[in-house]
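Subject: for your reference before the review

Hello V.,

The reviewers asked for a structural picture of the protein, and I figured it would be easier to keep everything in one thread rather than splitting it across files. Below is the amino acid sequence we used in the manuscript, unchanged from the supplementary table.
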Amino acid sequence: MEIEIGIRNVARALNFSVDATADDISKVIDDAVAGSKPINLTDNRGRRIVIPTDALGYVVVGSDIAHPVGFGAL
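And here is what came back from the structure prediction:
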């Protein structure tokens, strides 16, 4: 699952992949925002991403459908 997070006053978005579903990610973000707690996520490489909710600009949760790569016949 691809995730893009925009941080306030930062020109570049944060992009990473996680093994969780879109519903799981939405729940983590909703709970953090509702409780004014930092958003804690772990990406596919095991890195922890911690974002203060007051710095959160936007979140885009991508599709979990694997897209083929290459020039073969579709």
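For the response letter, the relevant points are probably these. The longest strand covers residues 2-7. The mean pLDDT is 88.

Happy to draft the paragraph if you're swamped.

O.
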